[in-house]
Amino acid sequence: MDTIVLSLKLDKLGGAERVVIQECNFLNENGHNVYLLTSKISSKVLEDYDLSSDVKVICLNGDSIIRHSLHIRSILRDIQPDFVNIHYKEAEFYLAQLGFSEKPKIYIQVHGSPFWFKNNSNLAPHLKKEEVNTILKEKHMEFQKNIPKSPSVHLLKVYLHEFFKEKAYKSANIVFATTPQVKHEIKALYGIDSKVIYEGISNSWINQKPIKINLTDHEYSILTVSRLDERKRIDILINAMKEVDIDAELIIVGKGEDKDRLKKIVKKQNLEKKVRFEGYIPDEKLPNYYASADLFATTGWISYGLTPLEAYLMNTKVLISEDVGAKYVLDGLNGVKVIKNKENISDKIEELLVTKVENFDTHKIPRWNQYCNKKFKKVI
Q1: Burial of 66 per CB tally in 10 Å (0-12, 13-18, 19+)
Q2: In the chain, what are the domains?
Q3: How remote is the C-alpha of 58 from its chain's centroid?
Q4: Which 8-state DSSP code applies to residue 304?
Q5: Rounded to two decimals, what is the model's pTM?
Q6: By the 8 A CB rule, do 317 and 357 touch?
Q7: Which of 23, 95, 243, 353 has a CB 3.0–4.6 Å from the CB of 69, allowing a cystine?
Q8: What does the pLDDT read at residue 128?
Q9: pLDDT tens-place string over residues 131-170
Q10: Cβ–Cβ under 8 Å, residues 219 and 247
Q11: What gap in Å lies between CA 312 and CA 316, rounded to an integer?
């Protein structure tokens, strides 16, 4: 079966990027002839997430919707795929396949709706919808205070993009959402139903035998792992450390554009002895970090989030905010606390650090094969 996986840019390490590559590998292992299409690519991403050499990678020409659509159309004509699996680029694909008499089976995966991208102009065409405004006020105002609304050429392009994106959703065989929240948002924005399947952790990753390492000279270690950008809200964890009275150190793993701002906060709060920036750690070494930490914490604004699931599978206690989509999997499990955004986080950190957990409910964490078998059962 000839299959196209149409992807977001693969130039940064991240959860959605990892899912795209692992899906390519799964389809390849199940007999698909896989073509991965993306507009930007980094060899580091492909190497770190171990893309199979059998997957054919095609970088799309240009940087506009029209040029991408034309290139995709040419590829569709040449390959004539049986199946197309889309991660973003929905509008481009819809335009590319217009007029074709025979069309492939189409799946669309929505990692995060337009609500989950800061000050996203793609929300502008939907602001007259009552439910969209309700969702904004209840869940997303912290990062959606300045949505562009003034008439402009850019906004005209946005309206057209959202129009064709909705057409793409309605013409797909099925649309998948990462969580019930994202499912609700897709319905409010585009008027379509979607199916929730929770992304999981691969068995090969789970079966690694982590080596306990000495993460800190302090009595307790708190670990967070993510790309360093504003939406991850690592500043909340840093500021909380000022109020943590027991001997603990926050270890921040990851890199990104927010690093300098976060370091300034640490310096301003005189927290150099309680917060450490560890930088980037390769995937194969992360189990050692997860297993060695006393607590994993993330207070981000994240549509899903694989890292807290990974940490929990290493029998590490987890603290997450209510804005982390992985709460739908983790809430109620032994050794997990889901906190409201205005709760006193330092108290919850102290409480979890000193709590002994004998039995972790690791069997309730979704596995990668479970996710793929559910999603692709009709095409494998």
Answers
A1: exposed
A2: 2-200+369-376 (3.40.50.2000), 205-364 (3.40.50.2000)
A3: 23
A4: S
A5: 0.93
A6: yes
A7: 95
A8: 94
A9: 999 999 999 999 999 998 877 878 899 999 999 999 999 9
A10: yes
A11: 5
